[in-house]
DNA sequence: CACACAACCTGTCAGC
DNA sequence: TGCTGACAGGTTGTGT
């Protein structure tokens, strides 16, 4: 499911219901997600007030009373859905259920269990292994052409793979990398090094635009992704290449029946969608 | 060090 | 209907 826009959408929805509320009960239905949950996770969260919700890359970082940070990563299939209580029977893969003092119920569901959570002291944030070493936020001031070029220069790996690397830029995933490279007319198989310079300069604002538009649309809804309020994001209707193998790309006037349209290839084990006639 | 690939886990869909 | 294989939005760890 979730790349930066989806995680931001979830953070927003959670903030509306959780900020300032106290967690009066936490039901934990299994000891682990992708990794073991911290010792006494549910017990340590119970009774604490939620202070603020932030996002870094694809992580949701929730400050709770007592100087703790509750970290959530949704993995591929995780969701946090908020509903008015009381809670019914947990559905399949409802691994954690959080109850607020004003009667809302937040359920973490994750079929594939690639997601994970942590709970640690605020002071340990900078050195947290999942957060240290992340690249700049693509929507922040720290993301700029000079910096991006610096990280791409000398790298032989394909630009597609480099942009998926969270150390290069934090928060992009398979969909938005494909879409950004398409909009920029950059062939995903080109070496990262060859994109440093003028192409990186064009790419930076395009990445910002794609992400901003997706956030404004409430993210993309694929398969079972739902926002925390149960609404559906609709940015998937704006995809120009992702998931559109064989269709016309809409930018070049090629006839998909004759040229094959959008192509799907595999790079570093992930599907890449692109138009070989429009992207060079 | 840089890069490719398998693994983690479950579900769905296409093809036979 | 049922089986098999491919594939799915991410990240980590291993191997070359």
Automatic annotation (TrEMBL):
**Which EC number applies?**
3.2.2.23, 4.2.99.18
Q: Which residues form the active site?
A: 2-3, 58, 270
Q: State the name under which the record lists this protein.
A: Formamidopyrimidine-DNA glycosylase
**Domain of life (superkingdom):** Bacteria
Question: How many and how are cofactors bound here?
Answer: Binds 1 zinc ion per subunit.
Query: Which organism was this protein described from?
Result: Niveispirillum lacus
Matching InterPro entries: FPG_cat, FPG_Glyclase, FPG_N, H2TH_FPG, Ribosomal_uS13-like_H2TH, Znf_DNA_glyclase/AP_lyase
Residue stretches making up the Formamidopyrimidine-DNA glycosylase catalytic domain: 2-115
User: Assembly and partners?
Assistant: Monomer.
Q: Name one Pfam family in it.
A: Fapy_DNA_glyco
What reaction(s) does this enzyme catalyze? 2'-deoxyribonucleotide-(2'-deoxyribose 5'-phosphate)-2'-deoxyribonucleotide-DNA = a 3'-end 2'-deoxyribonucleotide-(2,3-dehydro-2,3-deoxyribose 5'-phosphate)-DNA + a 5'-end 5'-phospho-2'-deoxyribonucleoside-DNA + H(+); Hydrolysis of DNA containing ring-opened 7-methylguanine residues, releasing 2,6-diamino-4-hydroxy-5-(N-methyl)formamidopyrimidine
For whether the record's keyword set contains DNA damage, the answer is yes
The UniProt entry's sequence similarity note says: Belongs to the FPG family.
Identify the PANTHER family for this entry.
FORMAMIDOPYRIMIDINE-DNA GLYCOSYLASE
Q: Name one GO molecular function term.
A: damaged DNA binding
Q: What keywords were assigned to this record? A: DNA damage, DNA repair, DNA-binding, Glycosidase, Hydrolase, Lyase, Metal-binding, Multifunctional enzyme, Zinc, Zinc-finger
Q: Does the keyword Zinc-finger apply?
A: yes
Query: What cofactor requirement does the entry state?
Result: Zn(2+)
Which GO terms are recorded in the biological process aspect for this UniProt protein? base-excision repair
Annotated residues for binding of DNA = 93, 112, 155
What this chain does, per the entry, is described as:
Involved in base excision repair of DNA damaged by oxidation or by mutagenic agents. Acts as DNA glycosylase that recognizes and removes damaged bases. Has a preference for oxidized purines, such as 7,8-dihydro-8-oxoguanine (8-oxoG). Has AP (apurinic/apyrimidinic) lyase activity and introduces nicks in the DNA strand. Cleaves the DNA backbone by beta-delta elimination to generate a single-strand break at the site of the removed base with both 3'- and 5'-phosphates.
What range(s) does the FPG-type domain occupy?
A: 240-280
- Give the classification, highest ranks: Bacteria, Pseudomonadati, Pseudomonadota, Alphaproteobacteria, Rhodospirillales
């Amino acid at each position: 499911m979730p790349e930066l826009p989806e995680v931001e959408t979830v953070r927003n929805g959670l903030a509306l219901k959780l900020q300032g509320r106290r967690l009066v009960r936490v039901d934990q239905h299994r000891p682990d997600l992708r990794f073991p949950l911290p010792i006494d996770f549910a017990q340590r969260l119970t009774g604490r007030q939620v202070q603020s919700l932030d996002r870094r890359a694809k992580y949701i970082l929730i400050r709770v009373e007592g100087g703790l940070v509750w970290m959530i990563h949704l993995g591929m299939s995780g969701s946090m859905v908020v509903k008015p209580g009381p809670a019914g029977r947990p559905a399949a893969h409802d691994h954690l259920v959080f109850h607020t003092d004003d009667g809302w119920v937040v359920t973490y569901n994750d079929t594939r269990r690639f997601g994970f959570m942590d709970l640690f002291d605020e002071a340990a944030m900078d050195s947290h292994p999942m957060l240290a070493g992340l690249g700049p936020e693509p929507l922040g001031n720290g993301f700029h052409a000079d910096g991006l070029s610096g990280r791409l220069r000398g790298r032989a790996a394909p630009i597609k793979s480099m942009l998926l690397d969270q150390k290069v830029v934090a928060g992009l995933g398979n969909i938005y990398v494909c879409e950004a490279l398409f909009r920029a007319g950059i062939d995903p198989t080109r070496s990262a090094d060859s994109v440093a310079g003028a192409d990186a300069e064009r790419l930076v604002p395009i990445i910002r635009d794609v992400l901003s538009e997706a956030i404004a649309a409430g993210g993309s809804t694929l398969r079972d992704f739902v926002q925390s309020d149960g609404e559906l994001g609709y940015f998937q209707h704006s995809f120009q290449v992702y998931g559109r193998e064989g269709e016309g790309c809409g930018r070049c006037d090629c006839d998909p029946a004759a040229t094959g349209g959008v192509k799907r290839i595999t790079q570093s084990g992930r599907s890449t969608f692109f138009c070989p006639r429009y992207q060079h």
